[in-house]
Amino acid sequence: MPDIYPMVVKNDLLYYPQEIKEQFLATGPLPLRDGTTVSPEEIWEFMTDEGPRKFPFVFTSNPNSPQRLPYYVDLISGLKLNYLVISRRFRVEKLRQQGKPLIYVQGGQTLEPYYAADVVPLRPGDMTTLACYYVAEGLNLRNKDWKKADIHEEGNRVVAYETCRQVTCHTAIRNGVVPVSLLAPYTRTRCSDVTFLVESHRSNPLKTESLLVDYPPNYERHKSWAVDYVAAGIRRLIAKLDEVTGRTTTDEEFRAQIRAHNRIRGLTREIVELFRSAAVPPTGSAMFYGILAMGKDCDADPVAAEHVLAQMRDEVRERVARSQSGAELAARPVRVFKCGSCFDPNLHKLDSAGGVLVGADDRWSYVWMPDVHEEGDPYGNYARGTLLEPYDLPTEERARWVVDQVKQSRADGLIFGYQWGCNFQSAVARLVCDIVQKESDIPCMTIFSDALGRGESVEQTDNRIEAFVEMLSCA
User: Fold this and answer.
1) How many CB atoms lie within 10 A of CB 142?
2) How far apart are CA 170 and CA 195, in angstroms?
3) Same domain, residue pair 216 and 344
4) What is the CATH number for 130?
5) What is the rounded distance in angstroms from the CA atom of residue 133 to the CA atom of residue 127?
6) In which region does residue 379 sit, left (phi positive, over 0), alpha (psi from -120 to 50) or beta (all else)?
7) Does residue 317 lie in a domain region?
8) Model pTM?
9) How far apart, in whole angstroms, are the C-alpha atoms of residue 173 and residue 209?
10) Do both 220 and 341 map to the same domain?
11) What is the pLDDT along the chain (475 residues), one digit of tens a residue?
12) Residue 215 domain boundaries
């Protein structure tokens, strides 16, 4: 099997090469949560014809796009992962037509309760991307960004200019672009505007309902009352979701989702361990980051996510055994650990500069958390599990967890990024970096960004990251 397959560039768009078609078709059908399957032939047709036509801003060959496909294929199973992301609009709409309502979620929760209640949970980034798939069909990268900017600016006018850029997805909800039935986030400190943005919907003419699931303050997570408090909140959440769907969620359905997500997190951890153990990782940073996202949220379909991750685990294991490196990685890439909420730099540029991503505390925190106990009271078990997620620990404890992950990943440097309007992450960035630098003795950099969700990365941000990688490579 060759190491790499270059994508085909036509009319400034990327197309999958015919050389991989036979191998891809051999991966078999993709099972979905509604009991149906998508044949590999259907996936191939979508990814080589319908996808580029409808969503050219994803298939663009523009090197400044952090959201584009890689220039090379090194994981055949990655085609299915990308299919799940790019087909989200059609899959989600199909589920909604089947009576599975869209639910807005935000905060540090894993999503077992939402899937147990048979709804479609979508985080702010998912919601914003979905909105673009509705309103920007057929648009190129620049025009898609202008369309998204219009939605964002409207949100600023309605809510506040100082708010986080997640106001974009709230405006898409308010305008009915994305038909959401309920806003049901966690009130965690990782996102400073969680409750503020949700409460802004009190003036929403659509009268979208909301339910805030409260979370205990720092230093309380080991106390029994905290477990009872979170468990009671999850009971209220599922009762509200049942009110929306008209069904009744059983304890066994909750346990089934706990078991499924334990398997999904386990597969993702295996892939990460293989990735980190290799002298040169077997795939590039963008695909690695996509794997973390799939292990965290499943892109609206846990059944499909488990199937894809199992195939990716096997393929990554084979590539590592053969010492096959990622197609766009340097011979000795600088290993970078990323911190901060919603900070998604241009990982293609990171790779081309000679770096590689080996960890991200926001996505990895969900996957790394201990498995939820599968027997007994699912509400109490889930509460104990979610209270142990490292990203929501008190800041000094979170920093020391990052130190441990930096050492395990053999990172050469750390970048902590934070977005405009994110008061919490901007406040803790320097403290986290100081602790990591002191206890792991690696260089750390903080960086501010105002480009959340943009299809083209900001040159100043790219330059700073490339300079940081160059400094690390000379150390």
Assistant:
1) 13
2) 12
3) no
4) 3.40.50.11890
5) 10
6) alpha
7) no
8) 0.95
9) 11
10) no
11) 447 899 999 999 999 999 999 999 999 999 999 999 999 999 999 999 999 999 999 999 999 998 899 999 999 999 999 999 999 999 999 999 999 999 999 877 889 999 999 999 998 888 888 888 999 999 998 899 888 888 888 888 888 877 877 888 889 999 899 999 999 988 776 776 777 788 888 888 888 999 988 888 766 777 889 999 999 999 999 999 999 999 999 999 999 999 999 999 999 999 999 999 999 999 999 999 999 999 999 999 999 999 999 999 999 999 999 999 999 999 999 999 999 888 888 999 999 999 999 999 988 998 998 899 999 999 999 999 988 888 888 889 899 999 999 999 999 999 998 887 777 788 888 999 999 999 999 999 999 877 666 777 778 888 999 999 999 998 6
12) 5-251
Q: Using CA atoms, how far apart are residues 283 and 364, in angstroms rounded to an integer? A: 17
- Are residue 357 and residue 220 in the same domain, yes or no? no
For residues 451 and 415, the answer to whether their CB atoms sit within 8 Å is: no
Domains: count for the chain: 2
Enter the tokens of residue 153: 């600016």
| Virtual torsion, Cα 373, 378, 379, 380, nearest 10 deg | -40
